[in-house]
Design goal:
By secondary structure, the protein is of the alpha+beta class. It has six helices and 15 strands. Pfam families: PITH, Thioredoxin.
Length: about 350
């Protein structure tokens, strides 16, 4: 099998991203001892799993290809970035050969599926960056024309959700690509795949991203129990509500406190009306695009619920827009073309 490919220009890398379903990129430096420590492992795996036009292992010298490194925010070497269908899917930093071996081994099944013409969607790379779990790619609402679902750019393991009921789901379920169990008809015995607030109706969710994003739309799915559900004989205060007022804050380095979120001026404050929810319990919320152009993190503050109860519920969240690295690589192609003009 073919080995790794050394990237010679920004346009070279762009062509490889467009021409392969799965790209594993090693950002390295010839003078870096940590880069040398994992070089053999990377070459062994590239020799075993490279597939022309399907799976590519590439090496990017950060000294020679500074524009590419800058576009993907590579600040230390070695850094390994995994791309699926041209989109950044995962990132591994550091020179631990065992960690890299583990990540690449878990990719091997995906590689084999791609080679056999299967869907090749892996359950996760195992690096722990926490991209949303895969499954049937359920959508609560149609995507705006010209934009894509960029939820997979969320660093799930670094997300933080405050005031969440510990007896319901964890923050990870919000980004699950599977259809919410509440829409499956009938009551499920599976783990609860939604989140609810705990002591009052407020929630604070911090979401950092793997790369800078342009955000166009926020899709929130909330499916409170219907009036026919009398499970646990819940009183009105315990029945969760849909969110009504939310505040969004951008580019915060960490989560806010509730008092801080109450007092701060939001990037955008949104009132969700009853008419905004579709039949699948999803509100399609357009964002003020000019204010969401270069976003590295998002804080979502659920201020109150749509009613008199003391709990709010979220089943799914989707971020719709453009991944920042795609925009940057478009600029890099022009840079790469300049010498030949």
């Amino acid at each position: 099998m073919a080995g790794s490919i050394k990237i010679s220009s920004p346009s070279h890398f762009t062509e490889l991203l467009a021409g392969s379903k799965l790209v594993i990129a090693q950002f390295y430096s010839e003078n870096s001892v940590p880069s040398q420590q994992v070089a053999d492992v990377f070459e062994q795996m590239s020799g075993a799993f490279s597939r022309p036009k399907l799976v590519a292992f590439v090496k990017i010298d950060t000294e020679q290809q500074k524009d590419v490194a800058q576009a993907y925010r590579v600040t230390s070497v070695p850094t390994f970035i995994i791309f699926r269908n041209g989109k950044l899917a995962d990132r591994v930093q550091g020179s631990d050969p065992q960690k890299l071996q583990s990540v690449l081994n878990k990719l091997s099944e995906e590689v084999e599926n791609i080679s056999k013409g299967k869907s090749g969607e892996a359950s996760g790379s195992g690096s722990g960056s926490g991209s949303a779990s895969t499954g049937p790619n359920w959508k609560g609402a149609a995507l705006p024309r010209g934009y894509t679902d960029v939820t997979d750019q969320i660093e799930v393991r670094h997300c933080e959700l405050l005031n969440v009921d510990p007896d319901v789901g964890s923050v990870r379920v919000l980004f699950d690509t599977a259809k919410p169990s509440a829409l499956s008809g009938g009551k499920s015995t599976a783990a609860k795949d939604w989140v609810e607030s705990d002591t009052d109706e407020q929630l604070l969710l911090f979401m950092p991203f793997q790369s800078a994003l342009k955000l166009h739309t926020l899709q929130i799915t909330s499916i409170p129990p219907s009036g026919d559900d009398d499970e646990d004989d819940e009183d009105e205060d315990d029945v969760p509500l849909r969110p009504r007022t939310i505040k969004l804050f951008t580019n915060k380095p960490h989560n806010l406190g509730f008092d801080e979120a109450e007092d701060l001026s939001a990037t955008q404050e949104i009132e969700i009306s009853e008419d905004d929810w579709n039949a699948d319990g999803t509100a399609n919320i357009p964002l003020r695009f000019v204010k969401f152009q270069n976003i590295t993190s998002l804080v979502l503050f659920v201020v109150d619920g749509d009613g008199d109860g003391e709990k709010t519920r979220l089943d799914r969240l989707r971020l719709i827009g453009e991944a920042g690295e795609k925009r940057e690589m478009g600029k890099l192609e022009k840079i790469g073309d300049e010498p030949g003009e």
